[in-house]
Amino acid sequence: MSELASGQQRVLALVFTAAMLTYFDRVCLSTAAPAMQMELGLTQVQMGYVFSIFNIAYALAEVPSGWLGDRWGQKLMMVRIVGGWSLFTMLTGAARAYGSLLAIRFAFGAMEAGAFPTLSRALSHWFPPERRSRANGVMWTGSRLGGALAPAVAAATIAWAGWRWTFAQFGAVGILWCLAWMRWYRDNPQSKAQAVTLDPVPWRSLLTNGTLLALFWAYFASGFGFQFFVTWLPTFLMKEHGLSLGRSGFYASLPLLAGAAGSLVGGLLADRLGRRVVGVCGFLFSAIAFVGSTYAESGESAIFGLVLAAGLHDVTLPVAWATCVDVGGRFGGTTSGYMNLASSISGTAAPIAAAWLAEVSGTFAAVFWVAAAVYAIGALLWLFIDPKQGPICD
Predict the structure, then answer these.
(1) What is the number of alpha carbons within 13 Å of residue 264 lying toward its C-beta?
(2) DSSP state of 201
(3) Mean per-residue pLDDT for 296-316?
């Protein structure tokens, strides 16, 4: 095996692991929430603010963090990101009151922002354009696997060590990852030089580019559907199909597992069939699966349709990220941070919109119809995305 191929495998392993850790550290909070509420005396509303403040900080810091990755180089930036979120993960276990918990989780969101833009930019240094979709597929496979496995791992660790020590252990894993990253990753495969971008960001060229605008709104559409799987899915299965808490919890992990498979398959298909084909078909077929779920008569048939919707949609993730970094060129971290901001915005609004739709209509079927319509728009937007455009500024 050549030195370059060996280096590519190490980089993929590090990126895959980092993507998993992003969700392990996020989901730990939701799993620990009941114990934290009891010990800290938090109301349901207060705990809701603790959850939401992460998304607010994440959205605010996403573009600046992507820009810093371009400016400092991905090696240093990922140490700042993972080291920072790991520190505040550990500090979560030391929280003694509502105010300190809010402050810690806000800082956690700000520290984690920029992780995926920086990781995707790192992949662009090591993989040629014709293999970047595949590499990004591996990254998003790690992300979805992390989201699927984290609840069970966190629950077992909390039962064994308590919620405070669980946060400490999860944070320590991130610190170990930083040590491995510093030892094995470099921005330039040919040398140890830092890959930095010191020129001013050409905001006018970036923000008025048709492909980037279409990517922004397509990724907004992505966030709307995905949020249902990580927020209201267990409630839907229990209330509308009478499933137990245990069964609904198990079924709720299946769309994320399907997303892991979809991300990997999407990356492989895109490098063979073309990114636009995968983008259009992924959104369109996922919309059809959402519509089919509205006719489900049992929890099992409903989850089957939703698993299809999640897996089919997630084939679009690697093509979106690979295209965004390619178009951004030297500012690939900045442009992908801008694109990911769209998902943060829709991710904040989608759970509230879903709750309102379900309350007004009396069923979550209305949510599925809206998600299908949003995904259909996402498919149309991919017709305006030019994956072969090349970098705006290189």
Answers:
(1) 13
(2) P
(3) 89
Give 349 or 169, the one with higher predicted confidence. Answer: 169
**Which helix (H) or strand (E) is 305 found in, with range?**
helix 299-313
Tokens of 189: 């495969």
In this structure, what token pair is assigned to residue 60? 């605010």
Where does the pLDDT of residue 54 fall: very low under 50, low under 70, confident under 90, or very high at 90 and above?
Answer: confident
In our burial notation (b when 16+ CB lie closer than 10 A, e otherwise), range 246-283 reads: ebbbbbbbbbbbbbbbbbbbbbbbbbeeebbebbbbbb
Number of helices (H), then strands (E), in the chain: 16, 0
Tell me the CATH architecture of domain 1-183: Up-down Bundle (1.20)
pLDDT of residue 9 exceeding 60, the answer is yes
Contact between 139 and 340 under an 8 Å Cβ cutoff? The reply is no
| CATH architecture, range 209-388 | Up-down Bundle (1.20)
Q: Rounded to two decimals, what is the model's pTM? A: 0.85
**Could you please report the per-residue DSSP string of 3-50?**
HHHHHHHHHHHHHHHHHHHHHHHHHHHHHHHHHHHHHHT--HHHHHHH
Nearest to 137 by CA among 120, 155, 161, 156: 120
